[in-house]
Amino acid sequence: MDSRILILIVIAAIFVAAALFMIPYLRRKQRTELLQTRFGPEYDRTVHEIGTSRAEALLLEREKRVEHLSIRELTLDERGRFSTKWRLVQLHFVESPHQAVTEADQLVEQLMTTRGYPVAEFEQRAADISVGHPRVVDYYRVAHQIALRRRRGQATTEDLRKAILYYRSLFDDLLHAELVSHRKEVA
Fold it and tell me: Among 58, 77, 164, 168, which is least packed, fewest CB within 10 Å?
């Protein structure tokens, strides 16, 4: 066999091997970038807790779970009713910050239920919320922790004020959210 043909075959084999090696790497990199973009700080938090591979698998599982939930947009009437209820929570804060935090927590749960999120356990609620509302899920976690401290009598008025602000961030996000599905982009 001609040495030039042999060299071309070897070069072609090297290119094929490099391509076969690079394709999975590029797919993983693309998946990582999409998840980082989609989940933002929630991606970073999850990676920090359990590592990149497990975090990405977990976030993809969350997306798959939420995709099968019957999440829906609110009607204009529902938005109006929830907005009115939130204004009452804010008014109650002036008179009774402790009670207002409890009301805010309950109102967020009611809003989640109306939208179609299951609300049985807090950690699952937060995980479900992280799919469509990743930029405010940490606020929800902090507000919930403050609410738990409030029940034990360990929250200051400043803590309660922060909880109301954090609940408000999630509340607004849930109230005005439109349905968007990203699942097909990541595989």
Answer: 77
Q: How many residues does the chain have?
A: 187
Cβ–Cβ < 8 Å for 94, 80: no
Please report the sign of the dihedral spanned by the C-alpha atoms of residue 99, residue 171, residue 31, residue 187: positive
Query: Please, what is the average pLDDT of the chain?
Result: 90
CA–CA separation, 120 vs 181, rounded Å?
24
Tell me: the pLDDT tens digits for 97-151?
A: 999 999 999 999 999 999 999 988 999 999 999 999 999 999 999 999 999 999 9
Q: What are phi and psi of 116, to 5 degrees?
A: 115, 5
pLDDT exceeds cutoff 70 at 55: yes
Domain residues of the chain, as ranges?
1-187
Q: Are 72 and 115 in contact (CB under 8 A)?
A: yes
Q: From CA 44, how far away is CA 35, in angstroms rounded?
A: 10
Structure tokens at 73: 């947009």
Q: Which tokens is 51 given? A: 């590592």
- Written as six digits, the tokens of 174 are 């849930």
Closest to 74 measured CA to CA, from 128, 114, 108: 114
**Centroid of chain to Cα 35:** 11
